[in-house]
Amino acid sequence: MEETNVDVVLALFWEMWYLLVFSDKKKSAGYAWGLMGLTVKLAQSIGLHRNTGKVKVIPEEVEKRRFLFWELLSLDARLSLSLGRPPSLTLNHVDSERPTYLPSEGVDLANSSHHYLEWSHTFYIHCMTPVLEAISQPSSHLGYQSILDLDRRIRDFPIPEYLKHCNGYESRAVMMQKGAVSMILETGRVHFFFYQNIN
């Protein structure tokens, strides 16, 4: 906490992914959620949530900071929906611009990760944020039509051709990205409906 920088936040980000994907502990998702709270505070302490024009940053770091922050936003939203807890971050307190989604250097266009990253961050803005806003207010009760509208927004959200259907010829990274797209879509829908059914 005394010498926080982008690399510290990045290390904590990967630790959360480790807990969620590889840990066999029963409470690993809860640990990841607690770690997210600390990570977000450290990210905010170095201005990761702010437009770099307002923070002194060397130009080479700008894209790294943006990618990391937008990945934190997305992961925080998925954790919140999965655990039924409030998110640590909201767009209301953020003016960090989105990263520049360019194809990975020296990689075939079909195997570049920029398709997935752009889709994931756009999905967060247009689908995850409205769902989190709808369920984060304890006193609110959504009408049936509002629930259907939010569900339709998720179901109808476009997926780029590069991220549809595994054909067995992609790299492992691309296959993981395609699997993640399905997981993100279902996380939004399933947990939203589960929340509504218990409230």
Automatic annotation (TrEMBL):
GO molecular function: DNA binding; zinc ion binding
Domain Xylanolytic transcriptional activator regulatory: 32-105
Compartments where found: Nucleus
Pfam families for the chain: Fungal_trans (PF04082)
Predominant place of localization: nucleus
A Gene Ontology biological process term: DNA-templated transcription
CC annotations in GO: nucleus
Family annotation (CDD domains): fungal_TF_MHR (cd12148)
InterPro entries, sorted: Sec_Metabolite_Reg (IPR050613), XnlR_reg_dom (IPR007219)
Keyword list, A-Z: Nucleus
Protein name, UniProt field: Xylanolytic transcriptional activator regulatory domain-containing protein
Phylogenetic lineage: Eukaryota, Fungi, Dikarya, Basidiomycota, Agaricomycotina
